[in-house]
Amino acid sequence: MAGRYDIVIIGGNLVGAAFACMLQQRAAACRIAVVDTQDPSAVIDSTQAALSTLHASAPQWIGSYDPRVFAVNLGSERIFAELGLWDAISAMRVSAFKRMHVWDQQSSARITFDAAEIYQPKLGSIVEQRVMLSALYDRLAGNSPANQASVDFFSSSRVRSLEKTVQGTRITLEDGIELDAALLVGADGTDSVVRDYAGIDTFGWSYHQTAIVATLATERSHESTAWQRFLPSGPLAFLPLQHNLSSIVWSVDTPDAERLLQLDDERFVQELEQAFESRLGGITAIGQRYAFPLRLLHAKHYCRPGVVLLGNSAHTIHPLAGQGVNLGMQDAAVLTQTLLKYDFPRTDRVFRALREYERCRKGENLLMLGAMDLFKRGFGSGLFAVKLARSMGMQLVGRCAVAKKAAMRRALGAAATFY
Ligand SMILES: Cc1cc2nc3c(=O)[nH]c(=O)nc-3n(C[C@H](O)[C@H](O)[C@H](O)COP(=O)(O)OP(=O)(O)OC[C@H]3O[C@@H](n4cnc5c(N)ncnc54)[C@H](O)[C@@H]3O)c2cc1C
């Protein structure tokens, strides 16, 4: 017999797991299930093992970092705080960044965003994916305050099929387990099976680029600054971690990425130092390199009756401004708030709630998606007129305090809350 749930969330990575925690905290009457290919206890164990090496020397610190680290803005931090998880995350490992310095290879344009200009202690934090997941999974595993909804986590499980039923959707997992969902949530990433099942079209394109990600140590301090240089081939970012460590995201055309990935460390570091103008001195140690293909995708609809999309399944964005997780967290907060407003699961107006969520999030997500695409194309162009426009644009924003502060406030994250 199939297990019956008010909500089944397919995808329990950052966005799906955060959404489950929000519901757990706020919708006590809700029966919730999460399905993911990952095993939460393995994530918790690997995080603890990595953090137990903190006394070691720099190269070992490099190995202790999850290659997936994200710039988490104050909006997302506030959501984690409302979940009562930010202290646990901070106690594991986070690195605050106070400034962001951006410069262009093809012109003299440069701009620095400083948290002090908007009277904030920081612009955001660089946090490892597995640190955030550990806190979320620990909560979902039941180490939570009383009077909260319980969540069944179907780990190491993949969806085999999705079928429409009178009450909603029947989910069959690859190991034969069946779940019935009144509301099916797709937090299953860019290649979402939930989106396909709901017949939701998308628009978008591949950038034919790959982001190379690695952790490294530099001679000089990063000064708690996120550094980003725009090259004609794509942006190169150094995100500050603890001590003199940084996490790089270097976006290049895919054939060039394949070449760079095959270089030995010494030759790779030489090219990287050149691309970065050795802003932080030499690179003294580097860890393993990882590759992520880059694409843009936007779902034409975020919902259908009985189905809703969150995070990357609804919108996949270029990582140059580090906003994907942040937008997904806002989706989850707004969907939680909207469902509660309509008294889910007791309501028969679920679709109305889903439409309201879609109206609230689509414009915001599209704006960010479009802005990042424009940046990517604008900085990639060698045309004189485009170079001039971007140089003038950066100088104007740099000199106009109002525009600069507005840009910073948007990047910090809107007043997201699920209360
Ligand atoms: C190089 C790079 C750097 C980035 N840096 C930043 C940054 O600094 N800040 C930021 O905010 N964002 C950043 N992003 C974006 C961020 O990675 C994504 O927006 C975010 O990971 C999306 O989370 P998600 O939970 O929506 O989807 P995903 O992380 O894709 O999770 C989907 C989950 O669904 C599961 N799943 C999928 N299909 C199935 C199935 N059939 N059955 C069961 N489970 C399934 C998967 O196992 C996975 O766990 C970056 C992206 C890239 C590529």
Helix content: 25-40%
From the helix content, strand content and strand pairing, which structural class follows?
Answer: alpha+beta
CATH topology category name of one domain: FAD/NAD(P)-binding domain
Q: How big is the Rg?
A: 22 Å
Question: Can you tell me the CATH architecture of one domain?
Answer: 3-Layer(bba) Sandwich
In what range is the share of β-strand residues? 25-35%
How many E strands? 20
Span of the ends, CA to CA: 36 Å
Quick check: average pLDDT?
A: 89
CATH superfamily heading of one domain: FAD/NAD(P)-binding domain
Number of helices: 13
| Major β-sheet annotation | 9 strands, mixed
- Low-confidence stretches are none
Shape: globular
CATH level-1 class of one domain: Alpha Beta
Bound molecules: flavin-adenine dinucleotide
Fold blueprint:
Layout: E1 3-10, H1 14-26, E2 32-35, H2 40-51, H3 58-64, E3 69-73, H4 74-82, H5 86-92, E4 94-97, E5 99-104, E6 110-114, E7 124-128, H6 129-140, E8 151-154, E9 159-164, E10 169-173, E11 178-186, H7 193-197, E12 202-218, E13 225-231, E14 234-240, E15 245-253, H8 254-262, H9 265-276, E16 283-286, E17 290-299, E18 303-304, E19 307-309, E20 315-316, H10 324-341, H11 350-380, H12 384-399, H13 401-412
Parallel strand pairs: 1-2, 1-11, 2-8, 5-13, 11-19
Antiparallel strand pairs: 3-7, 4-7, 5-6, 9-10, 10-11, 12-15, 12-16, 12-17, 13-14, 14-15, 17-20, 18-19
Bound molecules: flavin-adenine dinucleotide.
Write up what this structure looks like.
There is one protein chain. This protein is α+β, with helices and mostly antiparallel strands and 419 residues long. The protein has helices spanning 14-26, 40-51, 58-64, 74-82, 86-92, 129-140, 193-197, 254-262, 265-276, 324-341, 350-380, 384-399, 401-412, and strands at residues 3-10, 32-35, 69-73, 94-97, 99-104, 110-114, 124-128, 151-154, 159-164, 169-173, 178-186, 202-218, 225-231, 234-240, 245-253, 283-286, 290-299, 303-304, 307-309, 315-316. The protein has a domain at 3-93 and 124-207 and 295-412: FAD/NAD(P)-binding domain. It contains 13 helices and 20 strands. The mean pLDDT is 89. Bound molecules: flavin-adenine dinucleotide. Residues 10-11, 13-16, 35-38, 70-71, 158-159, 187-189, 193, 211, 213, 249, 292, 311-312, 319, 322-326, 328 line the site of flavin-adenine dinucleotide.
